[in-house]
Amino acid sequence: MSSTSSGRPADERNEDHRDDPGTGREGLSRTDRDRDRDRDRDRAQDRDRDRDHEGRARNARPRDGLGRPLPYGAEGVPRQPEGVVRTPDETVAEAQALLDAGRPFHAHEVFEDAWKSGPGSERILWRGLAQLAVGLTHAARGNATGGARLLRRGAGAVREWVAETGVRRPHGMDTAGLVAWARDLAELMESRGAARPVDAAEHAPRLRGEAAAPGSA
Question: What is the pTM of this model?
Fold first, then answer.
């Protein structure tokens, strides 16, 4: 549940979803430098350890329900399988179930699959939805700045797609409602700050709107 930067600061799957403000080296506090050093070490461990017998990269690092890496050996939440081709209805239904369960990081991976495997005419739409899910992930992690930025970026992509195509309810989705949801959550995050992360399930969007039938298209 993107543009060339987005919200997966410790993840290796897709460079397009990184948007982690404050990772530049200049002007960082000692704590920030230590955090960057630890992250670089973790990434090196991922590269060293997460390969199959033929040397292909894989990501066996356990992660929590918001996609944050856990220590090796910890019990994590299973990742979504990568590269799954789904119908649009399957994508929307699976992403909604994950959002309702408080797992927007995993919903973003479902949208990412649709973005990569779907028709070129819908790439902007699915990318925008992936950005919205990443924005909610940031918000639930307590990253108010990154969350608000990704929510607005995703909403902008959805608006752009609707303006270009004239389709307001693609695959039954309530694009106007999603844009309003993103705007409201971004404003909430900016007012609350990092000290009060949101509950991902409580603030999950309704992809097809409250009144839409589950199988509407």
Answer: 0.69
**Could you tell me which residues come within 8 angstroms of residue 99 by beta carbon, excluding any fewer than 6 positions away?**
1, 107, 133, 136, 200, 201, 204, 205, 207
pLDDT reported for residue 78: 77
Chain centroid to Cα 14, Å, comes to 11
d(CA 104, CA 107): 5
Q: Do residues 135 and 148 touch, judged by C-beta distance below 8 A?
A: yes
Domain definitions of the chain by residue range: 88-192
DSSP state of 79: P
Q: With 50 as the cut, is the pLDDT of residue 18 above it?
A: no
| Fold (CATH) for 88-192 | Hyaluronidase domain-like (1.10.3450)
Per-residue confidence (pLDDT) for residue 81, from 0 to 100:
79
Confidence of residue 23 (pLDDT cuts 50, 70, 90): very low
